[in-house]
Amino acid sequence: MPVSQDNPAGTRGDAPPDRHDAAAGPPGIGRPHERRRGRQAEAARNDRLVLDAAREVFASQGFAAPVAAVAARAGVGMGTLYRRYGSKTELLQRLCVLAMTQASAAAEQALAADDPWVALTGYITERVGFRSGALAPLAGTIPVTDEMLAAARHGRRLHSRVVGRAHRAGVLRHDVTAVDIALLIEHFSRRAPDELTGSGDRLLAIAIAGLRPTDEPELPEPAPGWHAYEQRWHG
């Protein structure tokens, strides 16, 4: 069979030459977008490891703890940490965003629940469980970035919806505010990890039970507001 100009290799027109796609890189290595997704997934895993490690280290050693202690706890190298975060301040700012994103996810899950009381108590318990407020003592010690501000506003809206839904259903005492719930979560999640078992869980259950509507006297005034709660971060 003669070789045509359109098919110089002598292969049939319906059987393209068996060659590796140059865009995919060397054989055995994924395409660029696949490699990029892999790197992004690895970075996300490292972020989560560092966040969990930072909460544990800072809860037990305070925020003066060296970054090396966080890296060791997370099982990542200092080089990896500093390639991703240029300084301890940048690391802490990123951890704040991750913590608020995690809290927002818990709120979204609560809003999807059918029972407003189960949603509220599950939301509180979950956030305390992953020590959502453990980074609160950083307030006023690091600059607030636009990303932190956006995450905080989004989380506040979702948090208020969870609490407002419980109020409208009549399952949450009327004088408990959304900020009260935020401070409750913060208080219990800032305790050291070894205190979160046993009596810690019991005390949290007692606190949650006290959120139910009651004939007891009104809570002391003034009720905390969002302005004072958030102003802490601006020094």
From TrEMBL:
UniProt keywords, alphabetically: DNA-binding, Transcription, Transcription regulation
A GO term, aspect molecular function: transcription cis-regulatory region binding
Residue ranges occupied by any HTH tetR-type domain in the UniProt entry: 44-103
Residues in the signal sequence: none
Pfam families attached to this UniProt entry: TetR_C_43, TetR_N
DNA-binding region: 66-85
Matching InterPro entries: Homeodomain-like_sf (IPR009057), HTH-type_TetR-like_transc_reg (IPR050109), HTH_TetR (IPR001647), Tet_transcr_reg_TetR-rel_C_sf (IPR036271), TetR_SbtR-like_C (IPR049445)
Disordered: annotated segments: 1-44
Protein name: TetR family transcriptional regulator
Organism: Actinocatenispora thailandica
Biological classification of the source: Bacteria, Bacillati, Actinomycetota, Actinomycetes, Micromonosporales
